[in-house]
Amino acid sequence: HATLWSGFFAIVAALLAVVLLIRNDLLRRGIQQEPFFVRIHTAMTFGYPGLLVYRYKSKFGDLLAPVGFAVVVEVTNKLSSAARIVDYFVDMKVDDRWVRLPNLQALNGTEFFWINNGNFQTATRLDFRENGLDAQARLLTLQPGESVKGWMFFEWPPELREKAPLTGGLRITLENSHGQRQTLLLSSPKPQEPGGSSLAGGEWHVMPKDYAADLSGLRVLPHIDLLTGFKGG
What we know:
Layout: H1 2-32, E1 36-45, E2 52-58, E3 61-66, E4 69-77, E5 85-94, E6 97-100, E7 112-116, E8 119-127, H2 133-137, E9 147-154, E10 170-176, E11 181-186, E12 205-206, E13 219-220, H3 223-228
């Protein structure tokens, strides 16, 4: 009987060793797994300069940056540990090449304005504090399986300003607080139709008329142009 029990315990010990090996291997794989799941909900494209602008401060005073491309993106943390989104880049496929879209870096969600009928004197103020991705992501630590969804805003680089391009797809690169970086290829987003529902998270919050602004005295200058010293366009 002692021999039988010894053999039984040996088998159990061997099985436990196998289980531990498998568990450790899964943990290692978990560390190396893709950190994000990304979904695009809707998008809007504007000609240059478009009717949606962002007011920002500079050494030259307040300036207006035209928004060229806006997209609602949902990012989910796939890791088994909490993580923050610390950086992202978006490239647009135009014809047969990838073009990097300058991020507007719009952290002040109440400085967006819609130019009504091209009249800068009665610009409608919009509020993206609650549904702008940048403002949310910089303060949010995503728990395992948790998502963040909101608008991303981009400018057109100089070579795409003559005519708003038809995108052949998007390539988004994200980095988390663990230093992990992932690049995903995404199909062309479905444009948001005027008057459509906001179920996809693409709603715009319009502030009361009392918050309208006269922007007629401000110069239109893309933020990327200011950063690079490019004054044309």
